Here is the input.
Amino acid sequence: MSQIGQRFEELVSVMEKLRSPDGCEWDRQQTHQSLKSYLIEEAFELIEAIDQCDDQKMKEELGDVLLQVVFHTQIASERGVFQIEDVLNALNQKLIRRHPHVFGDSPGYSYQQWERIKSQEKGEKRVSVIGKINHALPALSLARRIQENAAAVGFDWPNISGAVEKVDEEIQELKEAMRIGEKKKLEDELGDLLFAMVNVARFLDLDPEIALRKATEKFIRRFQVVEEFVHSRGLNMKEMSLEDLDRLWEKAKGGEME
Here is the structure.
């Protein structure tokens, strides 16, 4: 057996031990449902490691994501529905089946072929040209995926200028909805604006989910700089004017806070 095979079997055995009667109480209590939030959290921590170009952290976070796969599989094994071998076999077969241009005689990759194979796997008689929709995705990621799929079949702006003009149009429509003040209309127009912004991000080859996360983290860092400055001088943020706080904010942006 190869070193990889040995290490993988060891991981499966460790998880089986943790779930056993003489294992870990916390691990034994977990279910597929209780682990959902951990799977999402680990995926985002891996993304953070990738963004930071931190190879050591990425190695650790990949391990944490793999742990979630093995954890869910062990629970499924205890339920008698499938084993880790079934997961690996299904994945291997899927990769080969969905890449006929590598493992078969297809001339090359095409999005339409990929979606056709997926629909055949699931026994679907007809699948939308924008692909199977995974509604569990975060909203920004879902919008990006739908736009990418639509673009793959030709439904797209010829260049980024059309996408930017659409953003301007949606801003004006949101302003008009704000003038009217009807909540349902406001929600619709805000959604349209966000969707249009995702399109601009796609043309710039940027992930809107990651861009927004980075912007939020940047806001947190700057806010904490202002907060620490105010606290160090015995002041109370709630008692300061917006003008004073805005001046401190600008200094925090410029790295001038001392």
Residues 55-79 form the longest helix (25 residues).
